[in-house]
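Working notes for the structural subgroup meeting. M.R. asked for a predicted model of this chain before we commit to crystallization trials. I am recording the input and output together here so anyone reviewing the notebook later can reproduce the run.

Input as submitted:
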Amino acid sequence: MPDRPIPPNPAPLDRLSGLLEHCRVHARLFHQGPLCGVSTFPAEPGRGFLHVMRSGSLELRHAARSGLPRRLQVREPSLLFYPRPLAHVFHNPPADGSDFVCAELDFGGGAANPLARALPPLVLLPLARVEGLAMSLQLLFAETERVRCGQRLLADRLFEVVLIQLLRWLLDHPAEAGVQPGLIAGLADPRLARALTALHEAPGEAWSLDAMARHAGMSRSSFAARFKAVLGQTPAAYLADWRLTLAQAALRSGRPVKQIADELGYAGASALSRRFSQRLGQSPRQWLAQRP
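Returned structure, recorded in token form:
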């Protein structure tokens, strides 16, 4: 019987919640107020940055081999988002230093986090471009302007709200953001997004290519070809990487391999260990022993 496309489910789709529930992104406020002169932000493993410039101007500098322009001028209120470790330097006018709030970002799973891997190295975006951002920023700056009970905790959570709003914008405008093949491009595709969201929400299901294609409302052959073209890997390879990302996060939290294997759809602890060694070159125990 020939492959036949399956009508897609018309229900509204939440493309981010399942992903972020499994791979949390934690923000930590570390600066509020003007930045004058030279401010350096080093690259540290597993760490990103989200800067919000409310007023002023700055010259942004990167190293010669960073893959980004050596110098960029920012002259309007903007978001500057670095999802992966990348050193950068702000040069601010000393007379009228730009007004900033800045947060460090910790992507759950570190370098293996599929969201961090899929994003451009820098997203530089005027604040006015992101719909609904003004109210969140008003609350964020209000919390940083005077000390109150729970200020740091609330500011961190508000930064995470700003990040989710930014991710929404990226999903709706992938071409403008310079998104390359990968997860963001897949989630921006209406049909592939349904399959990806299902994988993120239920990673332990016995997923077959047919089952994924049904979620996408596509034939098996069309789905496989489209998935590879948009995400740069096969559906089976993406699912394996997603499960291993979750396994790494669970190992860091101290959970036993047998329990992790059961939740992620492996036949047992030995099956997970074999897959772990094939993809990462180490057993779960060896890998965990090298983590700080």
